[in-house]
Please model this.
Amino acid sequence: MSTQIRPVPSNEGPSKTIPIPANHQRKPHPRWWLSAQANVWRFLGQVGLYFHSIPTPSPKEPSFLRKFPTTVVSGQATMLHLAFYVPDGYQSQIQQGRKYPLVVNMHGGGFTLGTAKDDGRWATMVVKQVEAVFVSVEYRLAPEYPFPTAVEDGVEALLHLAANADELGLNPHKMALTGFSAGGNMAFTMPLRLRTHIQSTRNEYQSKPMEASQSNGTDRTLSGPPLPEIVSIIAWYPSLDNRLTRDERRASCVRPGKTLPPILTSLFDESYLPELENRMSPYASPAAATDADLTAAIPEGVAMYLCEWDMLLQEGEVFAERLKGLGKRVHLVIIKEKRHGFDKSPYPFSVDPEATLHYTEACTILKDALFDS
Model:
C-alpha cells in the first residue's frame, strides 16, 4: 500500500485547490493497453538514445551500479537501482577520507519511459566539470507503478545515499537535484515529499520540531542517520502543473505543432496519474504546493532551463516568478526555437552546440552551489 498523500491546504497562497476540468474527464484506457503502448515507446526511445550517444565526445557509461532494498517511504518492499558516475581517482580519494558533493538526477520520459542511463551526456559533463559524484535513479515507471511511486522512489534514493554517505564518500549536506521533463518535476516534488516524510517520522530521530530556517526543511542535527540537505536544483523543461489540461498547455505555446504529440502526452498522463484528483497533489504538481511549503522545502538556488517551443514553457515561467517572489535565487533561461527534449536529439553526426553551451553554464551553477563554503 502506498503512503497516503496528505491533501493540499486550500487556504494558503496561490495554490488553492481547483476543480478538475471537464476535459480532464476522459474515459481511461485499460492498464494492459497502456503497458503495451509504453513498451513500444520504451523500445523506440532507446533506439533514439542509441543514435544520440554516437557523436563524439561519447557519453560515459556508469562507473558502477548499486541496488538497495527499501520500504522507508512508500511501505512497499522493493529493490531500487542507482547508476553512479564518479570522477577519476574516486576510489583512492574516498579511501583517504574525501567527501564528494553529490548530484542526484531523475531522467525524463513522462514517468513512463526512460532509464537511469538516458542522461549520460549530462552526467559526463557534471563529473568532469563539477568534480561531483553523479547518481541517476532508476525509479519505477508507470503504468505498472503509477503516482506516487516515482517521487517516493526518488526520496528513498536520497535517504539511502545520505545514510550511506560515509561508505560512498559523499557529503550528505552538499546535494543537488537535477532532472529532465518528468525528472525536472521530481527535482521539485522530491524536496516537498522528503520534508513531509521527515516531519512525519522525526520522532524516530528526536522529538523537537523541524527547524524552519533550514533551506530545504531538514535538520542536520537530528540524531540517527544523516539527512539529505539539498542546496541546489537544476530543472530542464520541467512539468510543473498537472492541474492544467494538455489542451490548455498546447494553446499557451507559440508553436503548438512543435509540442509533444497527444498520443504520447495522453499515455504519460493516463499512466502516471490515472486518478485525476492526484493531479492536484503538490507531489504531482509542485505549482499546487503552498507558499509555506515551497519556502521551507525548496533550496535557495534554483536554475530552470525552458524551451520556447514547449507546452510547458508558460507554467515554468509562472513557477519561476513565484519562487522569486518567495525569495529564491532563480536563474531562468528560455532556450529560443527549441522543442521539449532538444538535448536528446537522435541526430547521429554531431552534438547540439546549444545543449553543450547550456550544460556548461549549468555545471558552473552547480559547482558554485556545491563548493560554496
